[in-house]
Amino acid sequence: MKVLVLGADGYLGWPLSLRLAIKGHEVMGIDNLATRRAVEEIGSNSAFPLPSPQERVKEAKRILGVNIDFSIGDITNKEFLREAIKSYKPDAVVHFAEQRSAPYSMKDLDHAVYTVRNNLESTLNLIYLVKDIDPSIHILKMGTMGEYGTPNFDIPESPFVDAIVNGKNDKIFTPRWGGSVYHMSKIFDSYFLAYFNRIFNLTITDIMQGPVYGTRTSEIVEESLRTRFDFDETWGTVVNRFCVEAILGIPLTPYGKGGQTRGFLSLEDSINALTLLLENPPKREEYRVVNQFMEIYSINEIAEIVKRAGEDLGLDVTINHVENPRVEAEEHYYNPERKVLPALGYKPKKNLAEEVKIMIEDLIPYKERLERYKTAIMPKTKWKS
Ligand code: NAD
Ligand code: USQ
């Protein structure tokens, strides 16, 4: 396969590019390095030092013997993206290239508008260009489990559900309610994908993925191949943050009651699942929805798991609930359906308790670097301010 990876410099994009290349697929990556700049903007940095894209590509060749093409550019620039798709002629395009932080999207009006523009323009560009250039290209678009919110019913894994409204029956788009401007942007992405799938007969996989944790995939065998790892209050996801807090002696920070429940998955399992979905595309002209997570935990359970792992490794770990900066349900029902990946034979390889120990071990050598960005850890971005 020839795969164009949009967002190839990111936490998921780089390890997916390595995995596809090592499996013998041709890979071209595109990124405008927006996440590097936005993390700097809030006074933080990746836990692991990040080589430039050019150095990354060189290191992938030197260590793994693979060729990855990499082009720096912004996919909201439609002529740049048109040229890339036209000249590269991919079988599939992976779309990761969005502003992906909920807190970043909630800082103020400018950050909200940037998030909506960047995410929706990039998705619309991709939809129209694939229609113009070759509608048979498989679009693998990364959405989020957070599109569904935390409803009091089992979350389906299908584009549409039967609903009875005012006594009459119809099919409606699976109900959604985001918890930030970022999550709302992903909801609008999904509406566009489902809508244009019908109008332009596109072949689409829309993945609803839970929060990812982890420092490694099987290709990350040397420091220069590492992917970015964020831990600050804006960009760090909860498991990754808790591991760094444990190392720095900061009490783990469940927000509010800590009963918020999500479907988590390791970086390795995410990359495995994405590769499987690329290698097993949906039927031509299908809009396929995939719920991608492996284990369901509350934030309180995650804190306990990280505390135990840290203590096993000789760290002194405490937990201190802090006022919730977000507006979200802190106790709720959560039972999402998951059948597409199991039907493709997918079995997770990692579990959170074991992986968290590996993460802490991987991060301990970088303690001095983490200390430098310590002030970016405690929550500051408030949904209501
Ligand atoms: P990331 O920020 O590390 O990667 C996204 C990459 O896209 C970045 O390198 C960024 O520079 C690039 N980018 C953003 N806008 C761009 C543009 N206009 N043109 C070109 N490049 C652009 O984020 P990630 O954690 O790797 O997430 C990848 C995707 O997966 C995102 O769409 C995110 O919403 C989704 N997702 C992530 C998680 C998670 O826990 N990390 C969970 C569910 C869904
Ligand atoms: N949380 C804490 N303490 C912390 C950090 C987070 O209690 O120190 C809580 C949050 O309040 C939230 C939950 O943990 O209830 C998850 O927060 P998160 O920061 O790990 O994840 P989130 O903001 O939802 O976003 C991340 C990614 C995003 C992806 C999403 C998947 O940044 O790109 O879409 O996970 S999901 O959560 O399913 O929407």
TrEMBL record:
Q: Which residues form a coiled coil?
A: none
Q: Which Pfam families match?
A: Epimerase
Q: Could you tell me which residue ranges the NAD-dependent epimerase/dehydratase domain spans?
A: 3-291
Q: Which family does it belong to?
A: Belongs to the NAD(P)-dependent epimerase/dehydratase family.
Q: What is this protein called?
A: NAD-dependent dehydratase
